[in-house]
Amino acid sequence: MNARPLLCLVTDRSTTRAPLPEAVAAAVAAGVDWVQVREKDLPGAALLALCEAVAEAARRARPDARVLVNRRCDVALAAALDGVHLGFDALPAAAARRLLGAEKLVGASTHAAGELAAAPFAALSYAQLAPIFPPLSKPASGPALGLAPLREASAAPLPVLAQGGIDAESAAACIRAGAAGVCVTGAILSAPDPGRAAAALRRALDTAPAAGGAGR
Predict the structure, then answer these.
(1) Number of structural domains, the chain?
(2) Distance between CA atoms of 188 and 167, rounded to whole angstroms?
(3) Strand partners, 182
(4) What is the DSSP string of 53-68?
(5) Helices (H), 62-127
(6) How many CA atoms lie within 13 A of 111 on its CB side?
(7) CB atoms within 10 A of CB 182
(8) What is the pLDDT of residue 103?
(9) Which CATH number fits the domain that encloses residue 123?
């Protein structure tokens, strides 16, 4: 994980006004560290083509940007991506780790702090906890968790990224609660200028005192 708070862009091409690779390039150039391609409606060939285009755009904007895909280890391998983010209907984390190897990122979604107690820590690189706040890019599927569960989850021996309804104003609160970073969709892709929106998030994260520091 990064020494500074991590900013991850989770894609939803239906929310952006520009072509997705173009929006991704602007966001990465402005401070996004990871891009997670989450386009569940796409069949395999179309998803592979989009991942390749997104990875090319992200790495052109910043060579150290990392690109993951949701659920599809086969696409991650075929597109030479940096890892995979697993959902409830994906491969077990240990199987994904065996397929991808030790150097790739393998993440998992969680929706309650207690879920991390049973997480396969040895196979995972990080976990996402959502929704912290009501989502900006889609209707809420359940009540927002708030910061207390994030604080509890962040005590686990695994980096936790906060997701759900996070914007530049609330991102700092997530870092103060112990998150290693944040994942956003609407705050960047729905903005008129994705680069400017990403830069605002980057500033908020970089100036937020970490958990246990001043301002908590």
Answers:
(1) 1
(2) 8
(3) 7, 162
(4) HHHHHHHHH-TT-EEE
(5) 73-78, 93-100
(6) 7
(7) 28
(8) 96
(9) 3.20.20.70
